[in-house]
Each structure stands twice: as structure tokens, then as C-alpha cells.
Hints:
- This protein has a single domain, classed as TIM Barrel (Alpha-Beta Barrel), CATH 3.20.20.
- By secondary structure, it is α/β, with parallel strands linked by helices.
- It is built from eight helices and eight strands, in the order E-H-E-H-E-H-E-H-E-E-H-E-H-E-H-H.
- The protein has helices at residues 17-26, 49-58, 76-82, 96-108, 155-167, 182-191, 200-203, 208-216, and strands spanning 4-7, 31-37, 62-68, 86-90, 112-117, 135-139, 173-177, 195-198.
- Bound molecules: D-xylitol-5-phosphate and zinc ion (ZN).
- The site of D-xylitol-5-phosphate (DX5) has 23 residues, from strand 2, strand 3, strand 8 and helix 7.
Amino acid sequence: MxxxxxxxxxxxxxxxxxxxxxxVISAGADYIHFDVMDGSFxxxxxxxxxxxxxxxxxxxxxxxxxxxxxxxxxxxxAFADAGAxxxxxxxxxxxxxxxxxxxxxxxxxxxxxxIALKPKTPAEKAFPFADKTDMIxxxxxxxxxxxxxxxxxxxxKIRKVRDxxxxxxxxxxxxxxxxxxxxxxxxVREAGANVLVAGSSVFKAEDKAARISSLRGI
Length: 218
Ligand code: DX5
Ligand code: ZN
């Protein structure tokens, strides 16, 4: 399974956002992770469509958009128009039928999708979506903020998701997000994660290329 590193721009310097994005891409990042927060689904407000539109204009990097918003179906078209490459929907953010509809609509717009689980949401909740989505995101912190402590009790859940996908013969990405650094990166890769989101660990690093390589396990 190839490891992908997705720096979260929530930890970037917004005064120099463009340079920060260029820097992590040149340092070897595979995705740019975009944490969209609405102040309702999570107790924080980050950024949204105008910022995504502007970033899309200046980079062809893969934009991995993490929607921490209520009832995301409403915004699939707007995020697709703004240039997202992948939209991740939280299972907890609407009734199941509308999450299925959001996945369908995103696919109709040519986007990849992910399904995200908050720490307290059991792995099994993602299973009905596994063959409909491209990625399952197991949060390793409570969503809403960067620079939080990694929740090691999420490791068995990551393993459960990976084992389920293997059992069903589904070649899907398993993404982890929150408190990922070179030390916790070893643990989540062993548990079966192959897409590692890292905000503070990457943006605080002096040598971003070395940090991204260490997150990759090389
Ligand atoms: C939290 C976000 C994460 C966060 C990661 O709600 O979804 O992507 O920005 O930041 P670090 O890597 O610093 O924990
Ligand atoms: Zn995120």
C-alpha cells in the first residue's frame, strides 16, 4: 500500500498560505488537506469556498477537502465548482441516506469521496459505505482543532477498518487525521492507515522534506 502524506493547511501561516502550500508540495506532500469547519458540526470556524477557489487557481496539487460541516449534501456542487479533488463527509453530519446522496453527487461531479468517523463513532458505521467511497477517514483526535494529542485508543479501530476492507477485497485508502507525527505515524501505518494527515507536525518542522519522509516511514 503506498503511503500518502497530506499536510493540513489549518496549521499553515495564512499570511503566507500560497508559499506554505508550495513549500510542502516541493517537500514531497501528496495531498493538501483542507479542513473546512462550520462552527456547528465542530466548535470552530476555519475557511471555505473562496479560499479553496483561490488555492485551486494557483496549484494543481490534489485537494483533499475534509468537510466538518452539517448536512454537507447542500455544498457538494459549490466545493466541486471551487476545485476540490476529494470530499470527505462525516457520517455523523447527516442521516445516512443523505450521506449516500452526497457521495453520489460528488461522483457525478467527477470527485473522489471519503467517509469520516469521529473518535466515538464505531468502525462498523463506515462499512455500508465502503464499496461506495474511495477512502475511510478514522479521526485520531476530536475534530475541530489542530495540534491536539493523538488518541492511541483509535488504533484498534483503524485495524478493524483495514481488516474489513481486506476481507471484502476492497482496495480503499484508510486516512488518519490528528496528532500524526513521526512517532504516531509508525503506529497508524502498522494499524493499516496509508494516508496520513499532518498539520502541526509538518508546518512546525524546520526541514519539511525530512519530516514528510519520516511520516512516510523512510
Ligand atoms: C482537526 C483536523 C485535522 C487537524 C490536524 O479537526 O481535521 O486535520 O488540522 O492537525 P494536527 O496534525 O496538528 O493534529
Ligand atoms: Zn482534517
